[in-house]
Amino acid sequence: MSGQDHIAWIAADWGTTNLRIWALDAANTTVLHKASARGMSTLAPDEFEAALLELIDECLSENRTTPVIICGMAGSRQGWREAPYRETPCAPPGVGNATIMEPVDPRLSVYILPGIKQTAPADVMRGEETQIAGFLSDHHSYTGLICLPGTHTKWVVLEEGIITRFRTCMTGEVFALLKNKSVLQHSLAQEGYCDTSFEAAVKEITRSPERLTSELFGIRASSLIAGQTPEAATGRLSGLLIGAELAAVASEFDLQNTAILGKDQLSRVYGAALGILGHQSALLDAESYTVKGLTLAYEAHLKETK
């Protein structure tokens, strides 16, 4: 039996900057995991199939069609093909709502899962809804708040497994812009940050979030005339931005007990900030939930095709 014969289907998470794939067997066990920097932002619509084949060509059999279930930005307006949004309140969408592609390569059968939109206040997500579907496979009928940290962090309310409302915060992107493109770049550390400065900043800005922009320039001033170290400056920048985000979402959501989908450094920082303010949180493995969510979609596909 060849390697391709072991592979029943392909799961793909297509982000803005990266593409990740998992090749799985009939028991939904991962046989191969690969990634590339061929994210949505690097591709024209007619380049998506080739970018996908770069990662999965070795997984495809010549004598059958292999299903590929995709979540994320491949379904955006600038993606492979736009997959229409589902609207809140709704359960995480599945393969029955997917956009079915017609790839050139006959070995492929491609399904792009839709994202979710909220009309008031206007907001959208793509990819996170699949992580939430995976989370719900372990936490049926969950009611509570989920945080999905990232460049654009999502705060999502679920009521008995239904996504009722959510809010996106651009804190990660703002941090990157300030660190790399603003006057603050001359004050910040390339790696690491000071926990003490982070904690102080979170506490200060949640009490007076209206002071954010003046406190940001204070980072530069303290580096010039008060002996602030680069690590302290980075900790303060992170604390001010995440603290301001928490102050904003606290007016909309109950932060007392939050499930954080992520175990990376950024997720740990969000957990630390919540803890500083006296809130409970739990860090959960976002990648495994992505694969679980895509697996649920594949299993639904199997039922539909029987």
TrEMBL record:
Protein's GO biological process: D-galactonate catabolic process
Domain of life, source organism: Bacteria
Entry keyword set: Kinase, Transferase
E.C. number(s) listed in UniProt: 2.7.1.58
Coiled-coil region: none
Gene3D superfamilies for the chain: 2-keto-3-deoxy-galactonokinase, C-terminal domain, 2-keto-3-deoxy-galactonokinase, substrate binding domain
Record flagged with keyword Chaperone: no
Class of enzymatic activity (EC top level): transferase
UniProt GO MF annotations: 2-dehydro-3-deoxygalactonokinase activity
Keyword Coiled coil annotated: no
Name of protein: 2-keto-3-deoxy-galactonokinase
